[in-house]
Structures are given as C-alpha cells and as structure tokens.
Specification:
alpha/beta; seven-stranded mixed beta sheet; 11 helices; 25% helix; elongated
Length: 455
C-alpha cells in the first residue's frame, strides 16, 4: 500500500511546512497550520484532454515579440466592461469576492443571462430550482445559459469536454473539490489545486473563467494569498447589505487599469447600472438650507460630485462635539483649526457635525474646500446656491492648494449642469477656460471664497 503524503498548510496565508509549527513563519499568525493529505497515488488528473508538451523556452528580443490586441467579449453591462478594461478577455481568469448576500451570484447570473455566447454556470452552493427562481426574477430566459450543480472538478471538466462553453462561471471556488487532494472542500490546498486546474483550462482552451470567492471576517479573500497571484483579475464587490447601492472595484487587472469602478443599485429585479453616480449622491431639495455644499472627489479614475452637509450649533454641555460621518475626524479637527485661525470663525464653543451624503467614505483631499465652506455656511446661516461646487485642498495657512485631474472634475461638474466651480489658482496653469461652459473661479485663499459667497 502506497504511503500517504501529508504536509502542514497555514490556513491564513497558505505557507507549506513539512512539520507542525506553533507560529507560521510567513504571516506570523499563531495556531494556523493544519495537516492535510497532499495527493493520492493512483488517481489520474481531471485535465487529461488539456495536457500539452512544450519545448524548452528560449530568450527572445522584446522587439521581435509580436503583440496583438487581446480579443474581448463586450457584455451588455457597461459598468463591468469598464472595470474589466473594455470587456471580458478570452482565456482570462477572474476572481470576484464580497460579503455574503452582497450580490455576487446575482451579478454573475445576470451576466450569464444577457451574454450571447454559450455560458456554463456551475454552482456548488445552490440547487437548480433556486437558480431558476432567481433567474425568473432577474430577466427572461436565455437559451445560451446552462446550469450545472456540481462540486467535483473531475465531473465539471468531463461535462465541459462535451458541452464546450464560451464562458465558464464557478460559484464558488471554496465549494469545489479535486480528487488529487484528500482534504475537504474549502481548505487551502483544495482552493489552490482547483484554481490551478481552472487556470490551466482557461489558458489552454481560451475560455474566460469567472470564480466567485468567499471573504474572511477581516474583509480579505478567503484561501491562500497565492490565489490572488494566480488569477488575472481580482474584483471586489462592496456595499452595505442594508442599502441598495453596490460598488465593483478592481484590485488587480492584467488587462486594464485598477483605478476603475462600477456602481450598481440592487433592485427586486436584479442589479441596475448607475451610469450617473452623482444622481444618488446629491439630494434634490426645494428649500434653501445653510450648511450644504457640493464637492468634487475622485473614486479611482471616476470624478463624482458629492453633497457635504454641516450643522454648527452652540455647545450647551461644556466640551464641544466634533462628529463626522464619511470623513476623517482628525482632518475635520484640522480644518476647524484653520477656520478659526485663518478665517476668523469662533468655533471653540460650537458643536460641529459633518455628514457625507450617500454613505460614501471620502479620502480625497480635494473635498476640503467644500467641507470648510459648508461649515462656514452653517455658522453664518448663509445659503449657498446648489449650482456652485468646489474642488480644492486646504492647507494649514488657509491657502487653497491644487488637486490632481482638475480637467475631469470640471468636465463632470459641467455635464451635471453646475454654473460655477471654485478651484485653486495653482490649477489654472495650462487650463483653457474658453473650452468650458461653466464659470471657473480660481482662488488662492479661503478669504476669497468666503468674501464672494458669505460676506
């Protein structure tokens, strides 16, 4: 009888050791090494039809290498096309992760039902009836979408040899199990082995493969870190399950930029593409209220116009409160100090509450000018017209500093119908004002902004 080969794998990072260790030498976590059976001696691999013999590689001058643009499958989902860099690349391996219930399976099933190509949707978590129920809610039936409920990679590859799909979707990689590994589904060695088999299939057949992955309680993708290194693209589906909006981010992309993002709205009929994100971030109001301004921020490469709301009131309980939602509280403290020292606002006895509408978390310093103007507007109880927006960083000296990609911010404000935009005068170098139908007001100090709008 053949001897069973075992090794110890870290359940956090996937590090392999020949013996048990209390602490993983790679990631430093304690008690994460688990013994797993490596492989069986008498099993044949599931990729027999994909085995290939390659000659030894030889060095080649980069000038002699012929490059052709990767063919892409353009889907009906414009947000997904943008995030992937223009569409689905043939033979690519894409990993998408997110919180439970965030909508990963819904997004993938929606893509499968709208593609014209033959799609095989492999589910290891749901039955055929469950998938059919969701498909009826999302869209009408698609004759090109086929469902397979299976967890064994042997059976999956056997079915694909007969079916020959154009696109493969695996839901999820943690439920797949290879016969080459003895350990249970979801273990480090199983996830790595199944992903390696799918990668080999994708590269040698040219069929794009989507893998849905679980995440840990820390928000990281479950399984070994090598899983993210193996795939071509890593997508992160984010959002609060208690709100309707979702964000699809790219954390790795070998075929495009990692700065793009897609925004969706979760409805009863599936995910709706939000082509104009500012529509959900700027509230529609009829009455004139103080403390509300519009600022320009960048989310990846995408400019967004967001609403800043402030409330300044007298502190009746001793120490004044400084509270912010969606904005860094330490930066708020700094901006309040600048307003008091450089702007002459007596905020030491005032409670200050700041909110970024829409539930976004803003880290772009270009939103500083909108924040200080919003606070000053609430302090003075002065109304600022909703047709005015701001894009500038505020320094400790009260100066308005330049921000990056100012042309994109101005173009977005113009597209949304704003009449004026306040920017730093140091951003005006090379900027041709005549090309815009929006009034661009360059400023150098906060006093110039307040004198124009509040006093």
């Amino acid at each position: 009888m053949a001897k069973v080969k075992t090794a110890y794998f870290c359940q956090n990072c996937g590090h392999q050791a020949s013996k048990w260790l209390g602490r993983c030498p790679s990631c430093g976590e304690w008690n994460t090494l688990v013994e797993e059976v490596l492989e069986k001696e008498d099993k044949k691999g599931p990729l027999g039809q994909w085995k290939s013999v390659s000659l030894a590689a030889k060095p080649k001058a980069i000038a002699d290498i012929k490059y052709e643009e990767e063919p892409r499958i353009v889907t009906t989902d414009g947000e997904l096309n943008r995030v992937l860099g223009g569409g689905i690349v043939q033979g690519s391996l894409v990993l998408i992760g997110g919180e439970p219930g965030i909508g990963k399976s819904t997004l993938m099933l929606q893509i499968a039902l709208t593609l014209k190509q033959r799609v095989l949707y492999v589910s290891g978590e749901e039955s055929e009836q469950q998938i059919k129920m969701r498909a009826e809610r999302i869209t009408s039936n698609n004759q090109n979408c086929f469902i397979l409920t299976e967890t064994s990679t042997d059976n999956i590859f056997r079915q694909m040899e007969e079916f020959d799909p154009d696109v493969l979707i695996i839901d999820s990689i943690q439920t797949m199990q290879s016969s080459l590994i003895e350990s249970g589904a979801g273990s480090v060695s199983q996830v790595r082995q199944c992903a390696a088999e799918l990668m080999k299939y994708a590269k040698e057949s040219g069929v794009p493969v989507f893998m849905i992955g679980h995440i840990t309680k820390d928000g990281n993708l479950a399984g070994p870190k090598t899983l993210e290194h193996m795939v071509d693209t890593v997508l992160q589906f984010e959002g609060d399950r208690h709100t309707t909006y979702r964000i699809l981010r790219t954390t790795k992309n070998r075929f495009g930029s990692t700065s793009e993002l897609g925004i969706y709205e979760m409805l009863g009929t599936g995910l709706r593409q939000v082509t104009n994100p500012s529509e959900i971030l700027i509230s529609q109001r009829e009455e004139q209220l103080s403390g509300i301004t519009i600022g320009s921020m960048l989310e990846g490469n995408r400019p967004l116009m967001i609403e800043i709301q402030s409330l300044v009131s007298v502190a009746n309980y001793g120490t004044p409160q400084r509270s912010s939602t969606g904005f860094d509280n330490k930066r708020l403290q700094m901006l309040l100090a600048v307003l008091e020292k450089r702007g002459g606002f007596r905020l030491g006895t005032q409670d200050v509450f700041l909110n970024v509408a829409g539930g976004l978390r803003v880290e772009d310093p270009a939103i500083d000018l909108a924040v200080v103007t919003s606070i000053a507007s609430s302090y003075e109880d002065a109304f600022i017209a909703p047709s005015v927006c701001f894009a500038g960083e505020v320094g400790l000296g009260g100066e308005v500093r330049a921000v990056n990609r100012i042309e994109g911010r101005i173009a977005e404000a113009e597209k949304l119908g704003f009449k004026k935009i306040y920017i730093s005068k140091y951003n005006t170098k090379g900027l041709i004002f005549k090309n815009y139908n929006i009034q661009i007001i360059p400023v150098a100090k906060l006093d110039e902004v307040f004198g124009d709008l509040l006093r």
